[in-house]
């Protein structure tokens, strides 16, 4: 307990964490400008694009009014952004549904899918990486290195369809090929529906994390303090779990965060394959229907998630690296911290 | 003047070492087969890609090597025609993206610290968009067009490549021969082209291989989602999408293009990984 209290007493660290969080704000603002510019502000008329050949002057005027297309572009942006701040992304183009209401359940479903994949993938890839490092050059190491090399090469939808072929339709018929979730309920009410989409994402993420974990673990195992621990006569098990593993995980945190952020994009295609009712399927439908408010909202949320995960990863790296933690707590100089983090990249 | 490294001979040595490895050899064969199918396949197609030749989802016969697809077109012929677009588009977007990223990376590394950090901060912001999400965002604003997709996929590669190249070039900038070149008063453009560029060719090639596998994934995914090439075009991504519903009765229409894409990306990854081990000696950090 005392340890934890001491830890929070180190004011520098709290300042650093606050600083990182504050630094995220201008980035999210820049992201929102980009999302807006990439869709609405481009030359060409969103209203014409949306209505395509069904455009009549009256309908055009209506849509233009709905999208505020007659206002100057920066007013349009401010209106959209101030709404987005309060999670109000306007109404969809196709109906009177609020974008936020439409997305609420979908966001939860996607988070459930990401969480269930992450919970399996992260421990699994750490375990594979550690074991491969310990058995370096042996059968397990060679085998996992080949399998991860192959899996890392495959696009996620290729993995997804292969998984369907193998476990749902052709070879075995164990799991449903379509992730059906009763409207009004969340995805965990039908766990079977989660299995194949999660499995696909696990297969997509595990190769990267396990390879980095293996590399990091090999480096640590060759260090002097591990030699020291061995010379003290500790069992190999203790050396690996108590001494090597905690030090090898720190550099992997950034990669794990990167992979979690990648999951947010990866789910889009994987959800489409399984018709999983998350933000990915609705994003694809909205892209096809050119329903800009929905596409903008989802893109902004996914990009903001990336920023949040990166901040968490930076904080996690500091907390899990005693060298950085104490150095930072002592003086308010961020340059060392950033230098050390850049060195990890 | 500092002694210049001869990039060609050094690169030849690295490539020689790369292709001595077993995986690189296997990779070269796999990639060669798929490129051959994509380029020369249409010459050997028994039917055109949009000809109806049998009942929908007809099984394999002596005449129909892989049966018919969901509309009754020859799967084998469509497969032979379908590689050109995906591999061509992936190649174009990779060249565009890696080229743009290379330019940004070298420019930032050789710029004043303030400009450098400004460029890289802007670059970091672009990294927040997963590639497929950004491509979808642009498609929703502009509609589907093959040209647009190739350019957008390339554009999403650029910030990722720029980061890698900038890091590599920043290290080179610290070396004495660059300092000497600056002291002698060499123009910046000359420093970039004849001093920096030859010294980042290894990370550049690794990036190219990596980006090529992602390009294929992205281009195929966009077609697979029905937002890329439109029917009746023959394209591996589109074939998978069209025939997915009847996979139970006619798996070949899905499996053939799936395997072709898989073999191609695996082959490229084998070569890239072997080269990275020889030239840089590190594992890459992750999918982004």
Keywords summarizing the entry:
heterodimer; A: 345 residues; mainly alpha; 78% helix; globular; disordered C terminus; B: 288 residues; 12 helices; 0% strand
Distance between the termini of chain A: 33 Å
Profile the largest sheet of chain B: none
Roughly what percent helix of chain B? over 70%
Binned strand content of chain B: under 5%
Q: Would you report the number of β strands of chain B?
A: 0
Biggest pleated-sheet summary of chain A: none
Q: What is the rounded Rg of chain B? A: 22 Å
Instruction: Provide the residue-averaged pLDDT of chain A.
Output: 81
Average residue-wise pLDDT of chain B: 86
* Beta-strand content of chain A: under 5%
Order of helices and strands of chain A: HHHHHHHHHHHHHHH
Give the distance, in angstroms, between the N- and C-terminal Cα atoms of chain B: 40 Å
Topology, number of strands of chain A: 0
Structural features, described:
The complex is a heterodimer of chains A (345) and B (288). With 345 residues, chain A is mainly alpha-helical. Chain A is built from 15 helices and no strands. In chain A, helix 2 (11-39) runs antiparallel to helix 13 (292-320) and helix 9 runs antiparallel to helix 11 (236-274). The longest helix of chain A has 39 residues, at 236-274. Chain B is 70% helix and 0% strand. In chain B, helix 10 (201-224) runs antiparallel to helix 12. The radius of gyration of chain B is 22 Å and the shape is elongated. At the A-B interface, helix 2, helix 7, helix 8, helix 9 and helix 11 of A face helix 5, helix 6, helix 10 and helix 12 of B.
